[in-house]
Specification:
Distance between the termini: 27 Å
Order of helices and strands: HEEEEEEEEEEE
Number of domains: 1
Radius of gyration: 18 Å
Shape: globular
Structural class: mainly beta
Helix content: under 10%
Largest sheet: 11 strands, mixed, barrel
């Protein structure tokens, strides 16, 4: 059953990408994430993360980032807060730094047959600092709500495979003037494999609907994300 599901996932993914690539209103990204549990016990967790994101379309850019996350576990709830730091750069764009402190509340609800409903409400502050002779500083706040499901494949307690379909909405008034791809909503599917040493490897395909700033800009982004958690 697991092999059949993976074949189906690859088939749908390849056909979706092929269709999207033929359209002019799409951008393509890949992202790599490494996440490390620095501290973890029954009540608390501290996580460090490094990531790299690349835009293929022209004018393209690259982005390096680091994040630190603190989590307080309270039964089915978790309270978390953290800060992300990013540097986005390329010769053809205005290079900029972003500092993103945030806080979030997550609620996990077991439904049936090991399937869990996940909900997360997240509030972010985004501070942007551009480089160059005309350096600028801009900032805004946004609220995010995500809903998704954790579904073991096959549906049994000891499964080492899990899929996570999800949807997320972004509530924002006005993005910064130079931010090319502010999100309005996104949705996707994550496939997670728990390894024998309890580390996790995941592959995610995510579609982003962009907040419309410029009528000539693409309206959708397609992200292929590879992550390793240890």
């Amino acid at each position: 059953m697991t092999k059949n599901f993976l074949r189906l996932f690859v088939f749908i993914f390849v056909n979706t990408i092929n269709h999207a690539y033929s359209q002019n209103e799409n951008e393509f990204f890949h992202e790599i994430v490494l996440e490390k549990d620095l501290i973890e016990n029954e009540k608390w967790a501290l996580v460090g993360e490094a990531n790299f994101k690349y835009l293929y379309n022209e004018p393209g850019w690259r982005r390096w980032g680091v994040s630190f996350i603190g989590v307080r576990k309270i039964k089915r709830f978790s309270l978390s807060a953290g800060a992300n730091a990013y540097y986005t750069f390329n010769k053809s764009i205005t290079n900029f730094f972003e500092i993103r402190p945030w806080m979030a509340l997550q609620f996990n609800i077991p439904i049936v047959s090991e399937i869990t409903l996940r909900q997360r409400l997240k509030y972010e502050w985004r501070f942007f600092y551009t480089e160059g002779d005309d350096a600028t500083r801009e900032n805004y706040r946004r609220l995010r709500y995500q809903i998704g499901f954790d579904i073991p494949i096959p549906i049994k307690e000891e499964s080492s495979w899990k899929i996570r379909p999800f949807f997320e909405w972004f509530f924002i008034r006005d993005p910064t003037t130079f931010e090319r791809f502010p999100n309005e909503r996104d949705y996707g599917l994550m496939v997670i494999k728990r390894l024998k040493n309890d580390d996790e490897l995941s592959i995610t395909y995510r579609v982003e609907d962009f907040y419309k700033v410029d009528a000539e800009e693409p309206v959708n982004g397609h992200i292929f994300l590879l992550a390793y958690y240890f």
